[in-house]
Design a protein that fits this description.
alpha+beta; BirA Bifunctional Protein, domain 2; seven-stranded mixed beta sheet; 42% helix; binds phenylalanine
Length: 339
């Protein structure tokens, strides 16, 4: 076979290989055009040719080289395009497909009630303050007229961290803290967690929430307390709700009262919710004890005040007819979804 035919055959062969499915282009390039490649070998043999034949074969060789190079480039581009097309196909996004709706959470009933209460009292000019849950015995008890050994401590037995530090058993220490820091007029509410070493049952939990209220100014009377709680009761439980005070005792208020609201379920006739009473006990309140004012550096001859405190769980349970407090803490979505 002469050199021209060898070259032509080489070209056919190379082009065929290049077009094969899955061709390894780099390997083909090396095989034909590489330093030790077939075309290079042919060119090396050109010395044996006659002077007339040399340029002719040389030209053919150049053409073959050009053809193979071109075919390699074209095929490389083709393969690249094909790979891109396949990638696009595989990663195709249908933007018209309906998305997965994220599961939306619900505001917890306790949070709902707390926000309601905050709105109601802010509407009456109260501001919100917070106090620590890890509290000094001084603020939780002593500054509230409950010295060591006072029997009122028993009913609020709590978790002591040291002799002097405990988990607060009520939000009332915020009263003492506020009086110490702020001069009258004072008009604050303070919601938050409180702790008592009560065993868990349908109406008790060692952790629960209270909302405290405190007003101190010149000329504050029990009438102001009554009016404030009237507005609260109507806003929270409905316009027809009435408020009733029963005498009670708290060491830090004098006089003290337990406050009932007329049953918002039966209107006072007596039903299952109010256990036939027509009234529902809802909070503790009273006029701030003069000695408590004094301990807060407020002159009881010049100023007077009232305070109240209630359980947020109790209000949530009444309002939403929840009969077991534990439901509020279990965070079962089937329960929470209902609010
Ligand atoms: N701190 C009292 C309690 O937990 C409630 C209360 C607050 C009573 C403010 C009077 C005034 O029982």
């Amino acid at each position: 076979m002469n050199m021209k035919d060898t070259l032509r055959q080489m070209k056919e062969e190379a082009l065929e290989k290049i077009n094969e499915v899955g061709a390894d282009l780099e390997q083909i390039r090396v095989r034909y055009l590489g330093k030790k490649g077939e075309l290079t070998a042919v060119l090396r043999g050109m010395g044996q040719l006659s002077a007339e034949e040399r340029p002719v074969v040389g030209q053919i060789a150049n053409e073959v080289r050009a053809n193979i190079e071109e075919a390699l480039t074209r095929r490389a581009e083709e393969m690249k395009a094909k790979a891109l097309e396949m990638k696009l196909k595989a990663e195709k996004l249908d933007v018209t497909m309906p998305g997965k709706a994220p599961a939306m959470g619900h505001i917890h009933p306790l949070t709902l009630v707390q926000r309601d209460l905050e709105d109601i009292f802010m509407g009456m000019g109260f501001s919100i303050v917070e106090g620590p849950e890890v509290e000094y015995d001084y603020y939780n008890f002593q500054a509230l007229n409950i010295p060591p050994e006072h029997p009122a401590r028993d009913t609020q037995d709590t978790f002591y961290i040291t002799d002097k530090i405990l988990l607060r058993s009520q939000t009332s220490p915020v009263q003492a803290r506020t009086m110490e820091k702020q001069k009258p007029p004072i008009r604050i509410i303070s919601p938050g967690r409180v702790y008592r070493s009560d065993p868990v049952d349908a109406t008790h939990s060692p952790l629960f929430h209270q909302l405290e209220g405190l007003v101190v100014d010149k000329g504050i009377t029990m009438g102001d307390l009554r009016g404030t709680l009237d507005v609260f009761a109507k806003k929270e439980f409905g316009e027809d709700t009435r408020v009733r005070f029963r005498p009670h005792h708290f060491p830090f208020t004098e006089p003290s009262a337990e406050v009932d609201i007329s049953c918002f379920s039966c209107g006072g006739k007596g039903c299952k919710l109010c256990k036939g009473e027509g009234w529902i006990e809802i909070l503790g309140a009273g006029m701030v004890h003069p000695h408590v004012l004094e301990m807060g550096n407020i002159d009881p001859n010049e100023y007077s005040g009232f305070a109240f405190g209630f359980g947020i769980e109790r209000i949530a349970m009444l309002k939403y007819h929840i009969d077991d407090m534990r439901l509020l803490y279990e965070n079962d979505v089937r329960f929470l979804k209902q609010f």
